[in-house]
UniProtKB/TrEMBL annotation:
It comes from the Bacteria. The keyword Lipid biosynthesis does not apply. The keyword Hydrolase applies. InterPro entries: Bact_Sigma-Reg, GAF, GAF-like_dom_sf, PPM-type-like_dom_sf, PPM-type_phosphatase-like_dom. Residues 418-641 form the PPM-type phosphatase domain. This is Serine/threonine protein phosphatase. Pfam families: SpoIIE (PF07228). SMART domains: GAF, PP2C_SIG. Keywords: Hydrolase. It comes from Leptospira mtsangambouensis. Residues 74-226 form the GAF domain. PANTHER family: STAGE II SPORULATION PROTEIN E, STAGE II SPORULATION PROTEIN E-RELATED.
Length: 642
């Protein structure tokens, strides 16, 4: 065997100048140092700028990865740490991780890392379809093998778009395999088409991607089980709320059931077909959720029972393609997949829930959660039927008792656990059941806190129902929207569309704040609620913050009243929010407590804890009104940055 001098050849994998064991076709050989088939380069030293790791650097990279995988972290943290490690160690700027879901037939981009934050945000918003448009990803996943390809070889216009956006000329795709099944994909973008530049990346990443697959799968399983636990806790709470609040308001009960169902699985169309025994007419309750614009529309429709008899005859849960059902088309249902859940109540009423997704399918865990909630909803509907048989007096007494109890559970039971902040809040209803509402909603990452206070028009059970509905919608919206104004706009759309034709229309004023707990910045919007106070500890001064906007539920479009403002909170600062039940409380001489008195009371006890501040203000208010009857709900919220 002829050997060439050892000083004019170098292995691109280990960067060692070694004589090969034997040169084969196209210049490929087995290196004596690393014992792998590699590209033989004729040069004495590596080319400047190539990403060749020394043995020590490879060892450090592997140890860093082992340390990463042995730690306990959530899915997002795992993605961020892993891609950052690749970026630092392999000096690669554009790294992406995809998750594959074979059950639903989809590939989902879960993280894209780049030093250019604007580019990172833009790529993370791209949605990929699971089809042949992205054949390279599908092929690599199906074969379980890495793939390096040039964008110029791809015909689909997506690659030209992606190349212009990122500067990418070629890409390395490595499947993330667990038990020989692809759970995800790792991609590295290159700004050139040189094959020699990706080889070491592929070799070193294949050593760690197996361990990453285990960590990724465990993180996904943990997230799934955590979501299931939260779902069932939410289902229990929602069912309890339905059973206790909506027993005497059948249509509102159905709307809340549909709203909850659509929120569990993010279905676009959620219907209930309700056919009383021996009736020729069937009532259809419809809820359409625009997932892109976060809009909710509801309506009801009457149809001849015999025209939808095939659906009413169904006995068990069924999966359907809505485009194959002419009945669904007549009802306005369209999409990719529908789930049918039939139930029969004890009074003989046949009910069928129809949930439809426009662009995806229902995974097994969502179907399980839906079955559980529909079972609870059935109990609520049965209880509602029984409740209708109570005497008017018994029904009214029971309604007030139950509504008062459930309303107290809907208000925050304890202050949120946000380090560096102190909270206080309470409500005293005027008639047992109040229309005032306040809440603290802490984001899952504990970095943001939404604070709100509101006042529903009217008193008693009707106002309490509106308050409970708004709470449900608000808790759903803060998870998908950052802007307080956009959230208020969606609440307005719901109130107007559902109560515009009611005998007594329902309106609501509100202030909504989004507090960034890291920077201390507060973004707030108003909906005709008035003022709140900001105490500045540094200057020992009080600012009256005037909110704007229009009361929710009066107009179909409130875009002309858009308002969003910012505040900066420093250490020791305190805010006080209140409803008009505080300032408009009357004494025996028909004199109002007023804002001046409230400001004075607030400043006089500013050194106390927020909850004690509210107690002191309420004590002074009670002393002011003495034995005068309370005519409006009294609600206050105080928050301090420690």
């Amino acid at each position: 065997m002829n050997r060439e001098p050892s000083d004019d050849r170098i292995c691109l994998l280990c960067a060692e100048s070694q004589v090969p064991n034997g040169i084969t076709r196209n210049g490929r050989f087995f290196c004596q140092t690393c014992d792998r088939e590699w590209i033989l380069e004729k040069r004495k030293i590596p080319r400047i700028g190539k990403n060749i790791l020394s043995s020590q650097e490879k060892t450090e990279f592997l140890l860093d990865n082992l340390s990463l995988f042995n730690s306990s972290m959530g899915l997002e943290d795992l993605m961020q740490r892993f891609t950052e490690l690749i970026s630092v160690r392999l000096k690669r700027d554009k790294v992406a991780v995809f998750i594959t879901n074979l059950e639903l037939g989809e590939i989902r981009l879960v993280y894209y890392s780049s030093q250019k934050r604007t580019l990172q945000r833009a790529i993370n918003r791209i949605a990929l379809d699971y089809d042949l448009s992205y054949g390279v990803l599908i092929e690599s996943m199906a074969k379980g093998e890495p793939c390096f390809y040039k964008f110029t070889d791809q015909k689909h216009p997506f690659y030209e778009f992606y190349s212009k956006l990122t500067g990418t000329k070629s890409q390395l795709v490595i499947p993330i395999l667990y038990a020989n099944t692809a759970v995800g994909l790792l991609t590295i973008d290159y700004e050139e088409e040189d094959y020699s530049d990706f080889l070491e990346d592929q070799e070193i990443l294949q050593l760690v991607v197996g361990q990453f697959a285990v960590s990724l799968r465990n993180s996904l399983l943990f997230s799934k089980s955590e979501n299931q636990s939260k779902n069932f806790q939410s289902l229990h709470t929602a069912a309890l709320t339905l059973s206790q609040l909506y027993l005497n308001n059948h249509d509102e009960m159905i709307r809340m059931i549909l709203l909850t169902l659509s929120g569990i699985v993010e279905s676009s169309f959620t219907y209930l077909i309700e056919s009383p025994k021996e009736s020729s007419k069937t009532k259809i309750f419809k809820l359409y959720r625009d997932l892109e614009n976060y809009q909710i529309h509801t309506e009801t429709q009457m149809m001849e029972t015999n025209s939808i008899e095939p659906i009413l005859q169904m006995k068990e849960t069924t999966v359907m393609n809505p485009s194959d059902q002419s009945i669904f088309q007549s009802m306005g249902i369209k999409g990719k997949e529908s789930m049918i859940f039939p139930i029969i109540l004890e009074n003989g009423t046949r009910c069928v829930f129809v949930l439809t997704k426009q662009d995806s399918r229902f995974p097994n865990d969502e179907i399980e959660a839906l079955n559980a909630f529909i079972s609870l909803a059935r109990i609520t509907m049965e209880n509602s039927n029984l409740y209708q048989n109570l005497s008017n007096k018994e029904r009214l007494e029971k309604e007030i008792e139950i509504a008062k109890e459930i309303q107290s559970t809907l208000l925050p039971r304890k202050a949120p656990e946000a380090e560096g902040f102190s909270f206080g809040g309470f409500m005293v209803p005027a008639r047992g059941i109040g229309g005032d509402y306040y809440d603290f909603i802490l984001s899952p990452n504990r970095n943001e806190l939404f604070i709100c206070i509101g006042d529903v028009s009217g008193k008693g059970v009707a106002a309490g129902l509106v308050m409970a509905t708004v709470r449900t919608i608000l808790h759903s919206l803060v998870r998908v929207k950052d802007s307080p104004w956009e959230i208020l706009n969606d609440i307005n759309n719901y109130l107007y569309s559902n109560y515009k034709e009611a005998i007594t229309p329902r309106f609501m004023s509100m202030i909504l704040l989004r507090w960034n707990l890291i920077t201390g910045e507060v973004l707030f919007s108003g909906a005709g609620h008035g003022n709140f106070y900001h105490y500045h500890a540094g200057s020992n001064s009080l600012s009256v913050i005037e909110t704007e906007g229009v009361i929710l539920g009066i107009k179909p479009d409130i875009s002309l009243f858009r308002n969003e403002s910012k505040l900066k909170f420093d250490s020791g600062d305190t805010i006080l929010l209140y409803t008009d039940g505080v300032t408009e409380a009357l004494n025996t001489n028909e004199v109002q407590f007023g804002e001046k008195q409230l400001q004075s009371s607030f400043l006089s006890c500013i050194q106390l804890e927020p909850k004690n501040i509210l107690e002191r203000i309420y004590a002074e208010l009670k002393e002011f009104v003495k034995e005068q009857e309370q005519h409006d709900d009294i609600t206050m919220v105080a928050v301090r940055k420690i």
